[in-house]
Amino acid sequence: MASSEHVDLEGFMTGVERRNPGQSEFIQAVREVAEDIFGFCEGKPEYHEYQILRRIAEPDRVVSFRVCWQDDAGNIRVQRGWRVQNNNSIGPYKGGLRFHPSVNESILKFLAFEQTFKNSLTGLPMGGGKGGSNFNPKGKSVNEIMRFCQSFMTELYRHIGADVDVPAGDIGVGAREIGFMFGQYKRITGEFTGVLTGKGLEYGGSLVRTEATGYGAVCFTQQMLKTRGMSMDGKTVVISGSGNVATHAAEMAVKLGGKVVTFSDSEGFIHDPAGIDQERIDWVKAHKTKRRGRISEYAKEFKSATFHDDGARPWGVPCDVALPCATQNELNGEDAKTLVKHGVIAVAEGANMPTDLNGVHVFKTARILYAPGKAANAGGVAVSGLEMSQNSLRISWTQEELTRRLFDIMEGIHNRCLEYGAEADGHIDYVRGANIAGFKKVADAMLAYGVV
Ligand code: NDP
Q: Domain 210-376 classified CATH 1.25.40.20?
């Protein structure tokens, strides 16, 4: 990197840090993108002149609101809700809602910023947004969840709309919560529109949406392996998380002949050297979603497995493919070095920003196949985009049609990464490829609009 460019990047980041004090996740996400965009913008004065990256790194708006609800014991509880509308240059704001006690403005701003590039990469007309609450759904009754969702939507409804902003699920928000929120939106407005995605099939949802993020991430991994003449077949796969993304990634990895050996949650990870087959994946799905159980119980059910407690993460287990599918910053520089030492071939992020900046630099330096979340996990929002299309057309596509479209979109994203990430020696920098391809479409639309 030339030194003048370095000064520009650091000057830019100093401004981002000054304007967003204490928002470490947001600053981290902006830096990861800016490291690639500054190089790309050299010799393209229009992007500088129109301050494009500076404008994308400033959300269009951040709405925060109070959410009051009553628990089963009759106590009044007060939570905070947010919707971050980052950028709608190429389509309505689109991005999930997260309910988790760790949620704060910095995390939602980073997610909405990332979402802007991810949605652009899919090739579909969707802008970037994200929202959620610091509400903790764990241990709550179904009635408490319903009352919270209704109260949350009673404020959120005025900021969203099928052509304005279309939220979906994320951590802590699945089909049940989307159902409660869609019901409340319909009750308040009297309208049945495609204002949320991830809906039930009976009321406008799309087939393949539930599976899309995990399936898409493994489809992307298969594309990466293909560039080196390899495939998932026979590969040992380490997965973190045990929610929607993790279990569906495991399912597709097993379908393609991979041997999945780990799952995790916030308490620790299980290692099953015998391999987690479809029957065991089905057990995890039922255990985590229907029974709301902990992953530690897997080791009691299946004697070939061990549980590693105290929040331990699975990155020390030797593998060919690693799929971080739990949460942000769950894989640091030391973890990345361990994976590389054990000969990892490919890392694809099912979660958003699971690898911290040190980890990203370790993977880039080791020149392994490394796909950032904005490329690898875009399958979920892609099928959400297809759910929006089906709602507008008032039709439902078949499983086969949607699976084909999902895989075509993932291939399209892979090709866009190649366009800007392929290097002279054949190595592919997927981080750079995804950042630049995602940026360019949004940037060119912003140039067309002038200063707005
Ligand atoms: P789920 O709520 O279904 O599952 C989340 C999993 O991650 C759970 O196993 C959870 O464990 C674990 N987890 C959450 N927080 C932590 C933490 N702080 N430390 C360790 N483990 C944690 O969420 P999803 O599977 O839907 O989402 C997972 C990731 O994928 C997120 O980063 C999300 O933003 C991203 N993503 C999701 C998409 C989707 O379609 N669902 C689309 C694109 C990205 P526990 O039960 O202990 O909390």
A: no
